[in-house]
Design brief:
Helix content is 22%, strand content 33%. The protein is of the alpha+beta class and 234 residues long. It folds into 2 domains: 140 residues, no CATH class; 61 residues, Herpes Virus-1, CATH 3.30.40. The strands form 2 sheets. Strands 1, 2, 3, 4 and 5 form a 5-stranded mixed beta sheet that branches. Strand 7 and strand 8 form a beta hairpin. It is globular and about 65 Å long.
């Protein structure tokens, strides 16, 4: 097995769009700010040779997931209170933003609130402010290997055998703890809704995923997406 040499995480965000309106929707009695976050996760795996040359082995892009946090004028009037409110929302959301480190989440929240403050400081006539942010989280896994011995048959992202997948995955019963968890493959909530819940499956390492998500993942890579637990490949 390749040795994990290093793990690098990069985090970026930016305000991409702002919209204001003086028309008050029936659901909005007073001034309201809508923070729209579009979150995406990119994962890449690299092989590092003895001469410190790196080679890209695989790269996966997870679908963009959106998250909306709405805030009233009363909530926004105190920076500390609005900061706390938004952090709580982003921690419990199923969009994938809950995966961020607490320091990164605080940095994102502070940035979003500062940007909102630029539009509200002048006391404009608008009643609804819509701010759209792009958030990107990049994970890089770097492994040690002699590239001279590297070929397609020893590629890190080799799929698990179908028989091994069926044997390794176990059905998980829905419980009250599930709503706080996200599938690390699609980044969506594991809980579903009252009318439809996807099958939940557990790896031998005890990590839980949507059944279709983890089966599709293991047909590409025989490693657990979270802890790199290995499923047999032959």
């Amino acid at each position: 097995m390749d040795d994990l040499y290093d793990f690098q995480e990069s985090f970026s965000y930016k305000l991409v769009k702002s919209e204001t309106t003086s028309v008050i929707p029936s659901s909005v009695r007073k001034f309201q700010i809508n923070f729209n976050f579009s979150f995406e996760l990119d994962v890449s795996e690299w092989i590092l040779s003895e001469d410190d040359e790196s080679q890209l082995v695989s790269q996966s892009h997870h679908p963009v997931v959106d998250c909306l946090v709405s805030m009233s004028s009363a909530q926004f009037s105190s920076f500390e209170e609005s900061q706390k409110y938004m952090e709580e929302k982003l921690t419990t959301t199923s969009s994938g933003l809950s995966r961020l480190k607490s320091s990164n989440r605080r940095e994102l929240v502070d940035y979003a609130l500062r940007e909102a403050g630029k539009y509200t400081a002048g006391g404009g006539a608008h009643r609804v402010l819509n701010l759209h942010f792009d958030v990107l989280l990049e994970h890089e896994y770097i492994y040690l290997r002699d590239i001279s011995n590297y070929d397609e048959s020893t590629r890190h992202m080799v799929p698990a055998e179908d028989s091994s997948i069926d044997h390794a995955l176990k059905t998980v019963e829905y419980s009250l703890d599930i709503p706080e968890m996200n599938c690390s493959v699609c980044l969506e909530s594991l809980s579903g809704d009252d009318y439809y819940r996807e099958e939940l499956l557990s790896m031998p390492c005890a990590h839980i995923f949507h059944g279709d998500c983890i089966k599709k993942w293991l047909r590409t890579s025989h490693y657990c997406p979270l802890c790199r637990f290995e499923i047999p490949i032959d």
